C-alpha cells in the first residue's frame, strides 16, 4: 500500500513537472536569446505612417497615475489626459497608479501588467535595458521634432550602444536640508554654502538634543538607501564606487576616500553622538523625522523641500537647502546625481508604444506644457502649496524654452521655491554607480550598520571585506559592453 | 461451423466491478474535483514550476535558459545563505523558548476560570485581528528609544535598550512581537482540546481531593499531549518561513543579524530579480521542511500508539 502511494506521488510529481515544463514561457522560448528589444516591433514602428485618409487604429494606453494621497499630481495628470484625448481621439487612456519599484517590476513584466509607460530612476538603466524591459526609442525619436533639444546631461544615463531607451523627466543632485528652527532654538549660526565636514560635525553636535529625541544629523541606514546616502560622502572625499578594469567591473569604494567617508559617519555616531538613537531609518522614516522637527540636518533635494511643506506642514521659510559639505575647505561640494526617466513598455504593440511616447512628450517644449505648469502653479497657490523645481529638467535651462519656464516660475515667487543660485553654483553632481547600484547600496548599508553598532569597528577591514565579496558575488558576473 | 462467441465470465465480472466502483465513488470524485483543480493551480503546479525554475535562468521576456545545478552550487557556496540559515534556526529556537509554551499556559489558565471565560477568550484572540500595518507601527513605537518600554525601564534606573538596533536583541524583539501577535490562535486550539477532555475525569479527581495543580498535571496536560506535538510542528513550519516582521521592523539588519532564509529568498526574487536562484532556495527549503514534517508526524504517530 505504501509502495503504491509512493508511486502515485512520484507519478503526480513527474506529471506536474512535465506540465510545468511544457507550459513554460512560450513567448520567451520563441524569443530565445534575442537582443533585449524586439527588433520586429521596432521595424514595424519605424514603418512609414499610414496615409492621411486612413483612420488611425483605435488603441488603449495605460497612463501612470498618482496615488490617491497626492491630489495635486492627480489633477495635473487628469488635465493632461483630457487634453491628450482631444488631440488623439483614437487613443483611450486608462489610469494605473502603480509606481515603479525595483522589487515589483519583474512581476509586472512577467504578468504583462506594466503600464504602457512608467517613471523610473537613473540607476535602473542596466537592469531595464539588459532584461529587455525598456523599449528602444530610436524609431520614435526619428520622427520626434525635439529629439535633439532634450537635456543631454540627462539622456546619457539611458543611452546604450548609441540607442536611447528612456525620455528624461528631471534630475536631482543630493544637497543638505536644514531645519532652521532647530538651529534658532539653540542659537546655532546657520552654516554657509561653502561649509565643510567639520562645520557639519559642529552644527550637528550643537543642534542635537538626545534627551528630547532630536538628532543633529540623520542619515538613512535601514535598507539600500543607506548606501545611497553614504555615496555622497564617498564622492566628497574624492572616491568612486566602482571602475572598469580590463573589461571587468571592480569595486573601488574600499579606497582611502571610502575609509575617510565611513570614518566620518563613525565619528558622527560615536564621538559626536548626533545620529538618532534609532538610526535604522529608511527613506520615509528619515523625512518623517525631519518633518516632526526631530532632525536638524538631513540629506535631500528640492523635491524633499516640496514634500516637507506640502505634506509635512512645514513653513518654507524655516527650511534651507545647502550644497553638500566639502571634505575640506576649498574642496568640491559633490552630491550624487540621479534622475527620473520615462520608459516605454516594450511589451505593448508598436502603435500603443507610439501613443505612450506621444502622451509623455505631449507637453515637452510646447506652449501647452507651459500652460499646464501655470495651471499647476495656480492650483498650488490656491491651496497654499509650493513647487520646488528640480535642479535639472528635460530641457536645457539656457534654451528658449528653458528661459520661458524660468520666466513663468518668476511670476509665482510665493509658490515656487527657488534654490539659492550660489548654492546651485557650488553644487556638483556626480552620477550614481552604473553597475548594480542597488546591490552596491545594500552592501554599503551593511557596513554602515556594523559601524553604527560597533564602536570599535575596523572600517578599512569592513570595506575591504565587503568589496571583495561584492566583486566575487555580483560584479564578476557583469558583462561590460 | 461457425464459432459461437462466448463472453468470458471473469471479464464480465471485472467490468461490473469497475462500473460499480465508479458508481460508488462518482459523486465523491465530482465533489473533490474543484478542490483538486484549486490545489493543482495554486499549490501543486507552483511547486512543480518552482522545481523546474530552479534549473533555469528565468527571464520572462527573453526566455529561460537551462543552467543545470548552477543555482544549487551557488547556494551551497554562499556565505550569506549560510548566515541566513543560521539566523533562521536561531529564530526558530527563540520562537520555541519565548512563544511556544505561552499559549498552553494561557489556555490552561483560561480553562480554570469560573467567570468571564468567554470575554477572556476574546481578549486573548484580539491581537490576531490587529492589521499588520497597525501591529508593526505599534511595536516600532513601543521599541523606540524614547518609547514606552524604555520609559518603563528608566523608572527602575535601567539604561535605554536599543531593541531593534542591538545585534543581540533585534531577533529577540521580533520574536516577542510575533509571539504576542499569534499566541491567540494556538491558545484557542489548546482550549478546544481541554474542553474535549471528559468532565467526569475532573469530577473524579476532585472527589479524590486533587488540587488545581494536580488536576492540570495529571488530567489536562496528558489530555492535550497530542496538541503539543501538532502545534510544535506548526510552529516549526511557520517560523522557518518567517520574514514579514523582519522586513517591517529591522529590514534584516543590523548588519544581517535578522536576515532569515525566507527573507533572503524574497530578496533574491524581488530585489535581485533572480527567480531561478530563489526557486532553488525554495526547493531546498521544501525538501528540508517535508523531511522534518515526516519525521515529526511519525514521532506523533508513535506517541499516539504508545
From TrEMBL, chain A:
<feature type="compositionally biased region" description="Low complexity">
    <location>
        <begin position="44"/>
        <end position="53"/>
    </location>
</feature>
<dbReference type="InterPro" id="IPR050490">
    <property type="entry name" value="Bact_solute-bd_prot1"/>
</dbReference>
<feature type="region of interest" description="Disordered">
    <location>
        <begin position="29"/>
        <end position="57"/>
    </location>
</feature>
<protein>
    <submittedName>
        <fullName>ABC-type glycerol-3-phosphate transport system substrate-binding protein</fullName>
    </submittedName>
</protein>
<keyword id="KW-0732">Signal</keyword>
<feature type="signal peptide">
    <location>
        <begin position="1"/>
        <end position="27"/>
    </location>
</feature>
<dbReference type="Pfam" id="PF01547">
    <property type="entry name" value="SBP_bac_1"/>
</dbReference>
<dbReference type="InterPro" id="IPR006059">
    <property type="entry name" value="SBP"/>
</dbReference>
TrEMBL record, chain B:
<dbReference type="GO" id="GO:0055085">
    <property type="term" value="P:transmembrane transport"/>
</dbReference>
<feature type="transmembrane region" description="Helical">
    <location>
        <begin position="89"/>
        <end position="110"/>
    </location>
</feature>
<keyword id="KW-0762">Sugar transport</keyword>
<comment type="similarity">
    <text>Belongs to the binding-protein-dependent transport system permease family.</text>
</comment>
<dbReference type="GO" id="GO:0005886">
    <property type="term" value="C:plasma membrane"/>
</dbReference>
<feature type="transmembrane region" description="Helical">
    <location>
        <begin position="227"/>
        <end position="249"/>
    </location>
</feature>
<dbReference type="InterPro" id="IPR035906">
    <property type="entry name" value="MetI-like_sf"/>
</dbReference>
<dbReference type="InterPro" id="IPR051393">
    <property type="entry name" value="ABC_transporter_permease"/>
</dbReference>
<feature type="domain" description="ABC transmembrane type-1">
    <location>
        <begin position="85"/>
        <end position="296"/>
    </location>
</feature>
<feature type="transmembrane region" description="Helical">
    <location>
        <begin position="122"/>
        <end position="142"/>
    </location>
</feature>
<dbReference type="Pfam" id="PF00528">
    <property type="entry name" value="BPD_transp_1"/>
</dbReference>
<feature type="transmembrane region" description="Helical">
    <location>
        <begin position="278"/>
        <end position="299"/>
    </location>
</feature>
<feature type="transmembrane region" description="Helical">
    <location>
        <begin position="169"/>
        <end position="192"/>
    </location>
</feature>
<protein>
    <submittedName>
        <fullName>Multiple sugar transport system permease protein</fullName>
    </submittedName>
</protein>
<dbReference type="InterPro" id="IPR000515">
    <property type="entry name" value="MetI-like"/>
</dbReference>
<keyword id="KW-0472">Membrane</keyword>
<keyword id="KW-1133">Transmembrane helix</keyword>
<keyword id="KW-0813">Transport</keyword>
<feature type="transmembrane region" description="Helical">
    <location>
        <begin position="25"/>
        <end position="47"/>
    </location>
</feature>
<keyword id="KW-1003">Cell membrane</keyword>
<keyword id="KW-0812">Transmembrane</keyword>
Amino acid at each position: 500500500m505504501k509502495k503504491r502511494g509512493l508511486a502515485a506521488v512520484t507519478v503526480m510529481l513527474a506529471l506536474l513537472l512535465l506540465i510545468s515544463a511544457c507550459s513554460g514561457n512560450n513567448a520567451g522560448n520563441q524569443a530565445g536569446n534575442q537582443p533585449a528589444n524586439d527588433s520586429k516591433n521596432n521595424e514595424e514602428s519605424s514603418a512609414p505612417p499610414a496615409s492621411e485618409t486612413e483612420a488611425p487604429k483605435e488603441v488603449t494606453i495605460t497612463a501612470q497615475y498618482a496615488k490617491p494621497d497626492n491630489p495635486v499630481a492627480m489633477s495635473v495628470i487628469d488635465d493632461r489626459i483630457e487634453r491628450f484625448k482631444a488631440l488623439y481621439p483614437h487613443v483611450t487612456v486608462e489610469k494605473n497608479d502603480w509606481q515603479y519599484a525595483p522589487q515589483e517590476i519583474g512581476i509586472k513584466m512577467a504578468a504583462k501588467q506594466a503600464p504602457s509607460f512608467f517613471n523610473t530612476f537613473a540607476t535602473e538603466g542596466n537592469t531595464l535595458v539588459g532584461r529587455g524591459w525598456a523599449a528602444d526609442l530610436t524609431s520614435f525619436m526619428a520622427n520626434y521634432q525635439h529629439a535633439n533639444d532634450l537635456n543631454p546631461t540627462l539622456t546619457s544615463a539611458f543611452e546604450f550602444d548609441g540607442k536611447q531607451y528612456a525620455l528624461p523627466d528631471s534630475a536631482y543632485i543630493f544637497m543638505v536640508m536644514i531645519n532652521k528652527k532647530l538651529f534658532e532654538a539653540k542659537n546655532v549660526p546657520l552654516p554657509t554654502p561653502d561649509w565643510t565636514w567639520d562645520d557639519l560635525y559642529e552644527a550637528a553636535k550643537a543642534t542635537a538634543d538626545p534627551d528630547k529625541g532630536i538628532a543633529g544629523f540623520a542619515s538613512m541606514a535601514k535598507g539600500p538607501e543607506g548606501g545611497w546616502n553614504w555615496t555622497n560622502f564617498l564622492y566628497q572625499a574624492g572616491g568612486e564606487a566602482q571602475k572598469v578594469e580590463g573589461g571587468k567591473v571592480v569595486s573601488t569604494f574600499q579606497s582611502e576616500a571610502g575609509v575617510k567617508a565611513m570614518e566620518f559617519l563613525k565619528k558622527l555616531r560615536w564621538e559626536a553622538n548626533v545620529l538618532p538613537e534609532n538610526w535604522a531609518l529608511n527613506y520615509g522614516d528619515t523625512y518623517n523625522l525631519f518633518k516632526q522637527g526631530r532632525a536638524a540636518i538631513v540629506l535631500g533635494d528640492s523635491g524633499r523641500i516640496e514634500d516637507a511643506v506640502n505634506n509635512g506642514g512645514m513653513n518654507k521659510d524655516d527650511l534651507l537647502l545647502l550644497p553638500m559639505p566639502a571634505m575640506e575647505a576649498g574642496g568640491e561640494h559633490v552630491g550624487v546625481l540621479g534622475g527620473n526617466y520615462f520608459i516605454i513598455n516594450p511589451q505593448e504593440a508598436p502603435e500603443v508604444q507610439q501613443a505612450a511616447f506621444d502622451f509623455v512628450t505631449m507637453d515637452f517644449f510646447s506652449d501647452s506644457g507651459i500652460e499646464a505648469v501655470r495651471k499647476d502653479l495656480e492650483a498650488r497657490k490656491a491651496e497654499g502649496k509650493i513647487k520646488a523645481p528640480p535642479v535639472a529638467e528635460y530641457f536645457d535651462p539656457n534654451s528658449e524654452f528653458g528661459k520661458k519656464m524660468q520666466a513663468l516660475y518668476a511670476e509665482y515667487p510665493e509658490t515656487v521655491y527657488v534654490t539659492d543660485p550660489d548654492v546651485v553654483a557650488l553644487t556638483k553632481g556626480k552620477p550614481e554607480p552604473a553597475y548594480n547600484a542597488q546591490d552596491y547600496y545594500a552592501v554599503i548599508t551593511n557596513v554602515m550598520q556594523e559601524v553604527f553598532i560597533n564602536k570599535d569597528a575596523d572600517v578599512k577591514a569592513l570595506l575591504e571585506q565587503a568589496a571583495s565579496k561584492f566583486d566575487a558575488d555580483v560584479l564578476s558576473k557583469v558583462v561590460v559592453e | 461451423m461457425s464459432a459461437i462467441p462466448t463472453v468470458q465470465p471473469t471479464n464480465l465480472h471485472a467490468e461490473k466491478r469497475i462500473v460499480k466502483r465508479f458508481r460508488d465513488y462518482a459523486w465523491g470524485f465530482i465533489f473533490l474535483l474543484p478542490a483538486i483543480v484549486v490545489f493543482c493551480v495554486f499549490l501543486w503546479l507552483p511547486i512543480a514550476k518552482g522545481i523546474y525554475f530552479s534549473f533555469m535562468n528565468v527571464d520572462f521576456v527573453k526566455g529561460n535558459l537551462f543552467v543545470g545545478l548552477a543555482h544549487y552550487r551557488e547556494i551551497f557556496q554562499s556565505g550569506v545563505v549560510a548566515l541566513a540559515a543560521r539566523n533562521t534556526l536561531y529564530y526558530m529556537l527563540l520562537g520555541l523558548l519565548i512563544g511556544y509554551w505561552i499559549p498552553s499556559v494561557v489556555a490552561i489558565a483560561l480553562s480554570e476560570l469560573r467567570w468571564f471565560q468567554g470575554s477572556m477568550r476574546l481578549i486573548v484572540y484580539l491581537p490576531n485581528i490587529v492589521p499588520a500595518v497597525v501591529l508593526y507601527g505599534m511595536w516600532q513605537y513601543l521599541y523606540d528609544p524614547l518609547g514606552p518600554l524604555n520609559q518603563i525601564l528608566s523608572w527602575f534606573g535601567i539604561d535605554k535598550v536599543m531593541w531593534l538596533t542591538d545585534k543581540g536583541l533585534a531577533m529577540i524583539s521580533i520574536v516577542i512581537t510575533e509571539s504576542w501577535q499569534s499566541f491567540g490562535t494556538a491558545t484557542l486550539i489548546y482550549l478546544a482540546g481541554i474542553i474535549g477532555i471528559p468532565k467526569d475525569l475532573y469530577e473524579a479527581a476532585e472527589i479524590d481531593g486533587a488540587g488545581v495543580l494536580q488536576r492540570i498535571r495529571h488530567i489536562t496536560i496528558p489530555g492535550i499531549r497530542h496538541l503539543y506535538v501538532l502545534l510544535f510542528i506548526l510552529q516549526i513550519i511557520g517560523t522557518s518561513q518567517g520574514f514579514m516582521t523582519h522586513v517591517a521592523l529591522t529590514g534584516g539588519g543590523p548588519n544581517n543579524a535578522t536576515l532569515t532564509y525566507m527573507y533572503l529568498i524574497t530578496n533574491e526574487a524581488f530585489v535581485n530579480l533572480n527567480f531561478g536562484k530563489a526557486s532553488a532556495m525554495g526547493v531546498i527549503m521544501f525538501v528540508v521542511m517535508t523531511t522534518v514534517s515526516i519525521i515529526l508526524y511519525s514521532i506523533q504517530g508513535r506517541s499516539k500508539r504508545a
